[in-house]
Amino acid sequence: MSAPDLLAFAQSVASGAVRVVDLTQTLTPEFPTIALPPEFGQCAPFRLEEVSRYDARGPAWYWNNFSMGEHTGTHFDAPIHWVSGKDLPDNAVDTIPPHHFIAPAVVIDCSAQAAKDADFALSVADLQAWEATHGPIPARSWVLLRTDWSKQSPAAFAGLREDGAHTPGPAPEAVRWLVEQRDVLGFGTETIGTDAGQAHHFNPPYPAHFYMHGKGRYGLQCLTNLDLLPPVGAVIMAAPLKIRQGSGSPLRVLALVNGSEAGR
Amino acid sequence: MSKPLSRPKRKNPLQRTRLPLLPHGQRSRKAHCLTAAAAEGRFMLQVCDDCSHTLYPVRDACPHCLGINLPFRDVRPDGRLVVETTVRISTDPYFRERTPWRVGTVQLDAGPLVIAHLHGDAVEGERVRLSLKLDKSGAAVMIALPAVETPDMQADPILREMTCDPQFRRVLITDGRTAVGQAMAKAFCEAGASIVFVGIANAWKPYPGMDQLAALEQVEIVPLDVTDSQSIADLAAQNGGRIDIVINTAEHVRAGGIIGRGSVIEAREEMDVRYFGLMRMAQSFGPALRFRGADGQSSAAAFVNLLSVHALMNWPSFGAHSATEAACLSAAQCLRAELRPGGVKVLNVFFGPLETEWFQTVPPPKLAPSLLAKAVVQALRQGLEDAFVGDIAQDIRERLAANPKALERELGDA
Q1: Is the separation of the CB atoms in B310 and B396 below 8 Å?
Q2: Same domain, residue pair B92 and B196
């Protein structure tokens, strides 16, 4: 195999032969964050305080201070986030090997099922049906669950009812199968978390967190534009902030797509 | 008889908004004891410890016996209006815009003669009831009210000048998600506010009482999150110029002290919601409130802070919460001084545990949100600056005045 031509790659990006699709939601104060029972500490929503804007506070410059939690907006979950991954080596955002931040992705389109049922749970059968069309999920790739949830209104996006959130996510067996049978790098969703809204009633609770992080795999959530990606062939760049012992971090997630395949 | 208020006509946008003027508010240090009484709606005068004469005006020595122990005591406010005068022309900038203005001499049953402002229904030769009020400058003045309530007496222009009656005013309630916020919305609708803006943060998150709140006729739900500077600035930009009374109902109540919390995460949230929330509201809405302090019959009138009475003395069972409330009280005092040039009052309403979810394990007496809301309306009608609502708040107030150290020690055991 000859050495990869990185300059040719850069040229392909510049020319549009490789298209860059932004999978990131804009950070705004209004964007929903996960809601825990109020007696628990909460994930801080995004907040912006203007330091100066070409005014008395700083005549020639505009800048802000911002604050938020590690799990606010489009964000990355490291294995240390979950108790099942707490003792793994290189399990925090500052110690994860950086080459894991660039990886291929497959997109499982379940938008039709999710539109019919907010509690849609991705099953092993769904994954096998996808493989029947697109071939086996390659090892060390991201599995992105497309539900078009990013297109929902904020209220429907959060899906909060009296008995908790109702948003789609993976069934426990499906996550386990992805990790154990397909050796995937991580699992990504458009919803507020990698798990379904009702996943605290699953066994184990929060299976995407439990199995993925328990095996040192990663999570991405609050993604958008998954409908612009091909089922196979996209490459994801998802590098979290280097927070010492960080459990996750907001980040910019970019997908590289063959220009002829991007968009529809 | 007072004429009932009518809904103010829409303002002519081509007319200049008149700037607020104040009556002169200088008082001696001793006379500010009357300010303190007026702030709480009490009628207090000096009573000589030695000869028991009731004194007015405020003295340093008793004119009857030269005694110098002249504590302020609650006295009966009843008397007779001996003579009235109508001022038709004044050289004072504040009063010359407000003439004719009636003043009169009242013979108090308790002894002294008092020169007082006159309510329109106070009649020469008849019985009246004196009331200590804070005028636009925040200093105590006397007003003679009719001895018996008259219909629409609250609408009297001189009385309205000294009070913050919500009738035909536009009110902003900062947080409508809480039981207190919703009780406030209801109470201010009933009090005749023309619009009750109710702030709702995170509209994507449902909350109990949502439908009942939206069903109130005068209520207009607006997006507002006191922890988000931009959301406050946006609302102020939209509606700041048409809000006359701000009621900050944003709350953050959590039990626990300082050591046991394990981090400052909760404390930061408390400070963000309560202290910084108050500061953000003041920065965004304060300028327009202060500018509109003399803007006609429904001028900007008040900024209301709801405070735990433990702002005055820490209750370690809710110790971190008490500390946050103390910070809010201090900020409210600053805000009061800053809004005073506009003749806009800051009303601090103190209360003990509420009949709400976060005080679930606290034994009674607890104050129902509906009673708190009614008390806020009443305090605005009276033009108070400080109101202590409910048994606990009044008890703490008295114990604090009597022996603050004992109160501190006892609350540590509570």
Answers
A1: yes
A2: no
